[in-house]
Amino acid sequence: METREIGKAILIILIGAVFVLSILSLTVFADIPKKINYQGYLTDSGGTPINGPVSMQFSIYDTPTGGSVLWTETQSVAVNNGIYSVNLGEVIPISLPFDAQYYLGVTVGTDPEMTPRRPLTSVPYAFRTKTAEMDHDTLADLNCSVGQVSKWNGSAWVCANDEVGDGGATPSSTVVTLDGTPSVGTSSEYSRGDHKHGIGAGAIKSVHIQENTITNANISPTAAIVGSKLASDGSVIKSLVSGTNITSVVNNNNGSWTINASGGGGGGDNLGNHIATQNIQLNGHWLSGDGGDEGVYVDNAGNVGIGTSSPSERLQVNGNLKMIGDIKTDSWLNSNSNTFIGVGVVGAGALVHTGGDEGWYNTAGGNGSLYHNTTGYRNSALGHAALYYNTTGHENSAVGGGALFSNTIGSENSAMGNAALFLNTGGSQNAAVGSYALNHNTTGSQNSAVGDNALMLNTTGNYNSAMGVNALHRQTTGGHNTALGANAGYNNTTGSNNVFLGESAGYNETGSGILHIANSSSSTLIYGEFNNGKVCINCTNPATGLDVNGQLTVRNWASASATAVCKNGNTLSTCSSSLQHKEKIQDLEMGLETVKMLRPVTFKWKDRREYDLGFIAEEVAEIAPILVTYNGDGEVEGVRYMQLTALLVKAIQGLNAENEVLRQRLSALEGKVAASK
Which fold, 3-131? Predict the structure, then answer.
């Protein structure tokens, strides 16, 4: 056997184990050995029999599981091939009375106690035979005839007729009392088997009866005590004292004893420490602590009233109801189709039903929720003081402590969050989700706020939508604003028709009709003015309809268009040449000579694999500065190719004038040649 295996294994006693309990020794007069022989078969968890000494603890209980140990001892048990035999009580004697079912528990080593516990069979209960010891051997040897009893004649036990004393006619004979001393008196009869023993009158006294030794089980249910032995004056039954509400009547003729209860009110009935065996009829009286007209009242219909003698429901409480635990119910807690749960929620008495749904179909859960509601209907309030002041408002939903707290007549509002729509009184169709969302709203309607403190200070503004923590936080009277993002439109107070998209977008905007798309309060990516139709990218002061603060890239140009796009300062525009846009008009002085100075080139762009032709702007600038463009730093940037057409036209005109002179000279020469022939 390995100690480790025993420490970890669950040792079992097989079903087929020998389970023998026998009394080692039992005699009538000798002291009974308090030992029980117990045998078993012990294996480890793998079924291998155990060999060697094993520490085993044996315990006796009066329950199959749990309970307290009544007796226990530990022995070192020799185990041979799993078989062992021990004498229980070898270390600590067993002194149990064996007057109830006992169970033996076995624990091996440090393992838990094995289950199940073994019920002890009848053999150990032979311990009870000790109580049957005879007073003397000769008493057991008597063989009396029918009608005779065993009597003490002063020196020995003898058989005698069942008469007074030793068979005489007078009650002066000696009989034995239970305490063993002779006494004179009338004997009664006590039979045990075929032996009868006389018990003298007065032999059984209260000092001879051990406390709690006579129980209900020892008294026959058909036994009777004649009425003459019961006195209502307390001389026999001293624990009963008749009073104004309890009287006792003894009938000596039939042996009956009647206890009557009467009266009520101030004195009250004292039922004492008893267990009722039948229904208790209060007969129109109270069950109270001091006998007064208060406490619990049960009417003939079975309705129970606390604080009222006219309950209208199965349980009616007039006064406060304090619960220190859960309320569990398979149906609704309701009043007039309303559901109320919580301390201080509105009660049925505060509701007024005038017709239709008014005052009905409300749901309140939480201390003070819907407290002042009168005719409001289809409201739902969950949370401390939710919809507290609501009176006639209907179809509101408030979830959270103080949600819609001040609402009185506002309807169709939804508030979810601590103090959401807290000050709303007459505003309707508002939706607030988040702590303090629309907190200051009073009469504003059709607002939507999602996020802690969203639209928090709005009072009378309408049609505002704010989503995000602190969105439109300071808005008070402005309307038709939309803010999406934490702190969006934070400082806007009275502005209307604004759109703020992004975290802190339009954070400091106070105007109206403004668009802010941003992700911080320090810069705006897109700014717009709805009133004049201007949009500014990366700026907030648009000069034109579309103002771009930075480079403009057009990824796809429309085809089949004859309209050119020109740069007018920093503005894109159509290329105009109308007189209405010009002044100080003069003839172009540059012409063919300038053109002759220009150097046309071909080249490849550095930033793309594209070959092109044109001029070098820096070279053109040296010849005709008017033909180049400059960047913001004043550096030469490009050539005004469209303006080159005017120069080329001037050059062509110059060539044409020269050609005309040459043509005239040629014509004159031709005339002279012809004339000379």
Answer: Immunoglobulin-like (2.60.40)
Go through the chain and tell me how many residues it has. Answer: 677
3-state SS, residue 324 = coil
Find the mean pLDDT for residues 430-446: 94
Spans of all domains in the chain: 3-131, 135-202, 226-231+247-264+283-323, 589-677
Instruction: Kindly give the pairing relationship between strand 380-382 and strand 397-399.
Output: parallel
Reduce the DSSP state of residue 68 to 3 states and report it: coil
Residues 301-328 pLDDT 10s: 889 989 898 898 888 888 877 777 666 5
Residues 6+ apart with CB under 8 A from 348: 335, 336, 338
Give every CB contact of residue 548 below 8 A, 6+ residues apart in sequence: 536, 537, 538
Least confident of 58-72, 79-93, 312-326, 616-630: 312-326
Helices (H) and strands (E) in the chain, counts: 5, 39
pTM listed for this prediction: 0.47
Query: Of all helices (H) and strands (E), which one includes residue 675?
Result: helix 641-676
Q: Which of 107, 105, 125 is nearest to 23 (CA)?
A: 125
How many C-alpha atoms does 336 have within 13 Å on its Cβ side? 21
Q: 187-219 burial, b for 16+ CB within 10 Å, e for fewer?
A: beeeeeeebbbbbbeebeeeeeeeeeeeeeeee
